[in-house]
Amino acid sequence: MECTVRWHDGMSFIAETGSGHMVAMDGAPEAGGRNLAPRPMELLLAGTGGCTSFDIVMILKKGRQDVTGCEVNLSAERAAEDPKVFTRINMHFVVSGRGLKPEAVERAVKLSAEKYCSASIMLGKTAEMSHSWEVIEA
What we know:
This protein is α+β, with helices and mostly antiparallel strands.
């Protein structure tokens, strides 16, 4: 996996991923940024949500569950002092589908958290991770 990050101007940076996609990042105004794009740590949190959601949908589909939607709401706390690593991350999953078995959703969340999601397992080295979920009938 590769990525190149280039300084654009002010405190704005453009990342070009190995798959050829571009992502803009910017700093807060008090840090010299113009607030035109997400902060790098926000992208880290978003990437973690994408990683774990991908796992959950894939696990449910492989388990022949009729999943029609998956949303994860992440809330994180950071250390007050540098390095301001994440210290707590909560993930709340809202999974919708037709006739979804709650135990299948619970299993998918657990497998992602403990075995498959590289991003959340990596962040779990510095942050206390918690997970909750709910099932909505589609």
